[in-house]
Amino acid sequence: MPAPFSAKKGLATRESLTPPHEEEEEPYSRSHVSQASVWKSVLAGFLAAFPTVLLLFLFKSFSMSKLFSAALAMLVMTRSTSSWRVDTHHHVLPPMYLEAMEANGGEPTGYPMPSWSLEQSLSSMNKVGTSISILSLSVPGVAIAGTGMEARTLARDVNDYFGNATTESNVSERLGFFGALPDWRDVNGTLAEIDYLYEAQQLAHGVSASTSYGGQLLSHDDFAPIWQRLNDYHALVFLHPTSLPGEPGSIAGALPDPIVDFPLATTRAAVDLVLSGRFGQVPDVDVILSHAGGTLPYIGTRVIGSLAIPEVRSKVQVDILQAAAGFKRFYHDLALSSTPAQLNGLLDFTEPDKILFGSDFPYAAQYAIDALVLQYEAFVRSSPRGYKLTNDVLRRNALRLLQKHQQGKKFEERTAFEVVNGLVS
Ligand SMILES: *[C@@H]1O[C@H](CO)[C@@H](O)[C@H](O)[C@H]1NC(C)=O
Ligand SMILES: *[C@@H]1O[C@H](CO)[C@@H](O)[C@H](O)[C@H]1NC(C)=O
Ligand SMILES: *[C@@H]1O[C@H](CO)[C@@H](O)[C@H](O)[C@H]1NC(C)=O
To answer: Which residues form the Amidohydrolase-related domain (predicted)?
Structure first.
């Protein structure tokens, strides 16, 4: 990559707390607005006018993707040095995981398996302007290997792979990870792996967990010792959706589970944790919900309202105020979730300091990540509330959360210039 950062002057207003729409109104009258900034405004206006569906269609169908990639590259290049991204939703498929998938019947959600390598991750990160990614397995994760010794070994191998990649690779300073755990129904195996991550290895920034195991939501009594142990270590939990009960592909006889069921699974898990009182018992645990909280911002108020029904209230462990406070504790990533409906929903439901950037690489194809990042940028520049969600805000949220939960591996604030120099040296 060339070093284009001298072109970034003129973007100062974007980094300040000035609502960007004020800048939009008369972009040409500001003497300090660079050509790149004008271009960004034009592009943002164009993108804001496009619903996601058309955007994706354009990206995918008409060789437009090269043009848009160039546009995205320009956005990245002209971005202020302080606004590179931190991606907390970035998946890997290391060799031992692929072997376990192969040996156990393959990807069970009906979603096509992406190809992956560390080089592909880095290339995607450079493209969208990500300086740091926190690696994790997606679902089914280690549970693909069952609930016995084979799965325990797989979890350990994956965590050692993560440990190596984030300390020994030549890009280690840009990588962290959420440790893999066995299926929680193997309670002892899960406790042992948590101990390994926090006492022996001490590199992970948290653990990843599925929204349910064997159809059991996470407040289940069997899982209580796991929550207790996570609380003892003040762990960060990256909650990843998994399939709901029912036949895979039962929607329209074809739709992979992630499309509709995953946001619902996230919603069920979040509501279960809060209303069961389990979340209240683990005040030192932070939880990241994937994909803008699934449908939680959309129906959370309906859940809170249900506590006004005496028959419901008498059976759950929290009152209306406690439930509202519990929901506010969640962090949310923006993986594949940057439509105005999703971003406005989050801003209605939670505080901007709980929102993180996520890409869902490589399950999200690069063209989809490009489209959704550009759509997010368009919201930031065009919506009256966009200034609340600038990339600076998202990056600071992520760094603050990671620093709160760090062990032996620490992330510094780094400038884009240093990152790119690191890449080309
Ligand atoms: C991690 O690195 C160590 C030391 O280089 C090596 O022995 C081990 O096999 C590696 N583990 C994985 C899972 O890559
Ligand atoms: C889990 O470990 C405890 C104590 O370490 C032991 O008493 C118990 O039998 C184990 N449970 C299983 C299912 O292995
Ligand atoms: C890191 O090493 C790989 C080969 O293992 C190489 O292709 C890549 O260019 C290196 N990256 C940097 C930043 O040195």
So the answer is: 86-402
